[in-house]
UniProtKB/TrEMBL annotation:
GO terms for molecular function: 3-isopropylmalate dehydratase activity. It comes from Desulfovibrio porci. Pfam families: Aconitase_C (PF00694). Pathway: Amino-acid biosynthesis; L-leucine biosynthesis; L-leucine from 3-methyl-2-oxobutanoate: step 2/4. SUPFAM superfamilies: LeuD/IlvD-like. GO terms for biological process: L-leucine biosynthetic process. Catalyzes the isomerization between 2-isopropylmalate and 3-isopropylmalate, via the formation of 2-isopropylmaleate. It catalyses: (2R,3S)-3-isopropylmalate = (2S)-2-isopropylmalate. This is 3-isopropylmalate dehydratase small subunit. Keywords: Amino-acid biosynthesis, Branched-chain amino acid biosynthesis, Leucine biosynthesis, Lyase. Its EC number is 4.2.1.33.
Amino acid sequence: MRRGPAYIFGDNINTDIISPPQYMELSVEEAAPWTMSGVDPDFATRAKPGTIIVAGRNFGSGSSRELAPLSLRHLKVGAIVAKFFARIFYRNAINLGLPVVECADADKIRQDDDLEIDFAAGRIRNHARGEEYFCSVLPPHILELIREGGLIAHLKHQLAAR
């Protein structure tokens, strides 16, 4: 479960928008302040830890660079909800421990709505509007991977257990 304020973006938010290419040579820490700056120059300072990004169609299209989800994770984004994701971004986000779910009703959510996502049940509760939306379910093995901080942390945990 994750709970946080909604931060709204539209359709076709690609990896160049999420993580502008002119900052690719910087470390994640140095690049993160520029996250989403092409569409919202204040995003990195306004987004609070736990913020839930809500977007339209095709979130994360473009290149496969991990800096896009890494920058969002560095800013402590709690989750991303979108109508649908570019597949490679979707998997990169999960591999980095950033939960992502698809929701056909994402456009019903407004800026700063108080959201609570139940990943196992596939439900988003909008406390600000008294509404509930269905979203994709994250299976137990993916939830475990996210809980452990991503694929690398999960594999380290698995190896240590042997």
